[in-house]
Design a protein that fits this description.
The chain starts with a helix and ends with a helix. The protein is globular, with a radius of gyration of 18 Å. It has one domain: Na+/H+ antiporter like fold (Up-down Bundle). Helix 4 runs parallel beside helix 12. Helices cover about 80% and strands about 0% of the residues. It is built from 15 helices and no strands. By secondary structure, the protein is mostly helical.
């Protein structure tokens, strides 16, 4: 695969992320912006991006294809979760950090980092496939992910998994399978609103990182080890496991890109809710996000 477009896209994303980082450091944005903007991205902009992928994609997708895609994404999350469980124990972390490390490896930042990269590499067709990852992500992050953080099933809720992106994914795929076309003006509305997902996503990531102490984030060697597993080991293992069984290059590519993403930003919020060390979760998010600017193009170049 030609790596030049990926490097160019990563450069753009890093630039936007840097703008968000600087805005927080100089006081233009703060925690209130991060919370409200994240909600807008997930509940509004991403929903329209999902709908836009359905109306813009020029490909055929059967119910069987949907089943294969979902299975691939469930396998990816299982691989990441298993690696998270193993790494947290092999690194001999204290009990309070073990669950956070496992979660940080298991669940990736698909919305804010993965989707923009997928769109740059595969276009609307890639986004259409990628949105199906919302199903295993939302179902598992609020069930298996909560168990990882709490150390028990307390606080686990399937109800919380019923997010706007998950509902939009189900509706969009069902509509796509019917083959019905929407009026051009509606399609244009989806495209215009969905176009704000990428820049707003990266601004949120940058603003979120700007609220973290860089010195503290870079002080724990185990955070680097967690990031290494998250950014390097998981995409390599995901590719090795799925390559013999998946012959659709786009599906394999989308799955590997999602596996190569940094730690999901929701890690911090769920860690706070679990009453655990939110600073450690933020460190994992920060370090993995920063290094992903280098590792994601590397993984795409090596594996795809």
């Amino acid at each position: 695969m030609d790596i030049a477009p990926v490097l160019s896209q990563m450069g753009i994303l890093v630039f936007i992320m840097a703008v968000g980082f600087i805005c927080t450091k100089i006081g233009v944005t703060g925690p209130e912006f991060t919370r409200s903007a994240s909600s807008v991205v997930i509940n509004v902009l991403l929903v329209f991006t999902i709908f836009d992928s359905v109306t813009s994609a020029e490909m055929e997708l059967s119910l069987g294809d949907v089943g294969v895609d979902l299975l691939a994404f469930f396998v990816m999350v299982f691989i990441c979760s298993l690696l998270g469980w193993l790494a947290a124990r092999l690194l001999r972390m204290e009990s309070g950090h073990r669950g956070i490390a496992a979660f940080s490896i298991a669940f990736t930042n698909t919305v804010f980092v993965g989707f923009p990269i997928i769109e740059s590499v595969y276009g609307a067709e890639g986004i259409l496939i990628g949105t199906l990852s919302n199903v295993p992500f939302n179902l598992l992050v609020y069930t298996l992910g909560v168990v990882m953080l709490n150390g028990s099933a307390g606080g686990m809720s399937v109800k919380n998994a019923l997010s706007a992106p998950l509902i939009a994914t189900v509706v969009a795929v069902a509509w796509f399978l019917t083959g019905w076309e929407l009026p051009d003006v509606v399609v244009r509305c989806f495209d215009i609103i969905g176009g704000g997902t990428v820049p707003m996503s990266m601004l949120v990531v940058g603003a979120s990182l700007g609220s973290i102490s860089v010195k503290q984030a870079l002080s724990d060697w185990r955070v680097y080890a967690v990031s290494f597993v998250r950014l390097i080991v998981t995409p390599l293992l995901t590719w090795a496991v799925l390559k013999p069984f998946i012959h659709d290059e786009m599906l394999l590519g989308v799955t590997v890109i999602l596996a190569a993403c940094p730690t999901a930003m929701v890690a911090t919020a769920l860690t706070i809710r679990a009453g655990k060390d939110e600073a450690y979760a933020s460190q994992c998010v920060f370090v993995s996000t920063v290094f992903s600017a280098v590792t994601m193009p590397l993984m795409i170049w090596l594996l795809l």
